[in-house]
């Protein structure tokens, strides 16, 4: 999770290792990449690749939303589209998919192969918070299809990324989806729910979370399946959700 918060630091702070948590580990910045997204909303898409020599980990950390305008763009551009870059029949949410496919994929693929070859004995971890978590899912699934080194995926406060077919593919990876109590973003985009029970349905082209939910309330936590009503989805109503819980994974981003 500390690597996830580092993705919000600028490149100069990462290079100097002066950003939040940088001195907690023996970290080295390998690569930092930024790509402009929509000029209308001043979107910025980026990821950092770091190596942790103490724990023998190669980490790719995708940055979450850069601005309120970018968050608005995600809320507007939330249609479900077909996943086409690999042989998977699934629906995925437009904004994160296009952001990865059109802006980040080529650079990620090149550098991921380079550094996993350079550090073959290190675990490969792909992580991100919020939008960064959605981008991390896309990168990890892509790496799996391309036959690259299989990554561990750890996301924090990620929205729903695709439908149940997409979630089933993510579930084949070693994946942990961390949720902080009443986080509002994990309920977005809305799933197709049963009108009587409120439970999310596995319907093609309707948003659905992946498994391995690690649900925190304060310091206590439990593991739940995708759309379990015992964890995040026990907060069924909009007035139960909290933007503060979304921003409080790392003592406030």
Task: Describe it.
- This protein has 253 residues and is of the alpha/beta class.
- Helix content is 28%, strand content 24%.
- The protein is built from seven helices and ten strands.
- The protein has helices at residues 2-6, 11-16, 68-76, 94-118, 131-146, 164-170, 243-246; strands at residues 27-36, 44-52, 57-62, 80-82, 91-93, 123-129, 152-156, 174-180, 213-217, 220-224.
- It has an eight-stranded mixed β-sheet with strand order 1-2-3-6-7-8-9-10. A two-stranded antiparallel sheet has the order 4-5.
- Strand 6 (123-129), helix 5 and strand 7 (152-156) form a beta-alpha-beta unit.
- The protein is globular, with a radius of gyration of 17 Å.
- The model has no long low-confidence stretch (mean pLDDT 88).
Task: Note the gap between the termini.
Answer: 12 Å
Q: How many whole angstroms does the radius of gyration measure? A: 17 Å
Average pLDDT over all residues: 88
Largest sheet: 8 strands, mixed
């Amino acid at each position: 999770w500390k690597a996830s918060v580092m993705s919000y630091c600028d490149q100069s702070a990462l290079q100097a290792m002066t950003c939040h948590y940088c001195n907690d580990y023996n970290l080295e910045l390998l690569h930092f990449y930024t790509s402009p997204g929509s000029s209308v909303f001043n979107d910025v898409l980026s990821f950092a690749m770091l190596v942790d020599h103490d724990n023998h980990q190669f980490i790719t950390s995708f940055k979450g939303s850069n601005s309120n305008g970018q968050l608005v763009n995600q809320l507007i551009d939330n249609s479900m589209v077909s996943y086409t870059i690999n042989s998977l029949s699934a629906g995925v949410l437009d904004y994160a998919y296009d952001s990865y496919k059109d802006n980040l994929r080529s650079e990620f693929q090149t550098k991921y192969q380079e550094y996993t070859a350079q550090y073959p004995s290190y675990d490969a971890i792909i992580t991100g918070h919020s939008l960064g978590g959605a981008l991390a899912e896309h990168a990890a699934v892509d790496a799996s299809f391309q036959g690259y080194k299989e990554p561990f995926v750890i996301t924090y406060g990620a929205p729903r990324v695709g439908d149940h077919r997409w979630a089933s593919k993510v579930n084949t990876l070693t994946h942990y989806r961390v949720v902080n109590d009443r986080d509002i973003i994990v309920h977005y985009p809305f799933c197709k729910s049963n009108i009587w029970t409120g439970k999310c349905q596995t319907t093609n082209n309707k948003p659905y979370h992946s498994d391995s939910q690690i649900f925190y309330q304060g310091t206590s936590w439990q593991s739940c399946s995708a759309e379990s009503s015992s964890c995040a989805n026990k907060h069924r109503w909009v007035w139960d959700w909290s933007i503060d819980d979304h921003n409080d994974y790392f003592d406030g981003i």
